[in-house]
Amino acid sequence: MTAPVVAEPDSETPEPPGGNVRRKVLVLVVAVLLLAGVGTFAVRYAAGRADRRNQEQAGGPPVREGAVTLQPAGRQLLLRNLAWGPHRDEVAAVPADRPDGPRTASGVKCLRFHAAAGTGICLQAEHGALDDTYHASVLDASLHEVRRFPAPGIPTRSRVSPSGHLVGWTVFVSGDSYAGTDFSTRTAIVDTRSWQFYDNLETFQVLKDGHPVQASDVNVWGVTFAADDNRFYATVATGGQTYLVQGDLAARTLTTLHQNVECPSLSPDGTRVAYKKRVAGADPAAPWRLYVLDLATMTETATAEQRNIDDQALWSDDHTLLYSLPGDYGSDLWTTPADGTGTPTVLVRSAVAPAYLG
Amino acid sequence: MYLADARSTKSDRAAAATPGTRPGRRAAVPGTVLALGAVSLVTDVSSEMVSAVLPLYVVAALGLSPLGFGLLDGINNGVGALVRLLGGHLADRGGRGHKLVAGIGYGLSALCKPLLLLVHTVPLIGGVLAIDRTGKGLRTAPRDAMISLATAPEHRGRAFGVHRAMDTTGALLGPLLAFAVLRITDDRAERAGYGAVFTVSGCVAVLGVLLLVLFVPGRVAPAAVPPGRVAPAAVPPGPRPTLRDAIALLRRPALRRLTLAAVLLGLTTVSDSFLYLLLQRELALPAHLFPLLPLGTAAVFLTLAVPLGLLADRIGRRTLFLAGHVVLLGAYGTVLSPLHGVGAAVLVLLLHGTFYAATDGVLAAATAATVPDEQQGAGQALVGTGQALARFTCSLAFGAAWTLCGPRTALAATTVALAVAALAATRLLRPTATTG
Question: Closest Cα partner for B142 from B190, B191, B177, B105?
Answer without folding.
Answer: B105
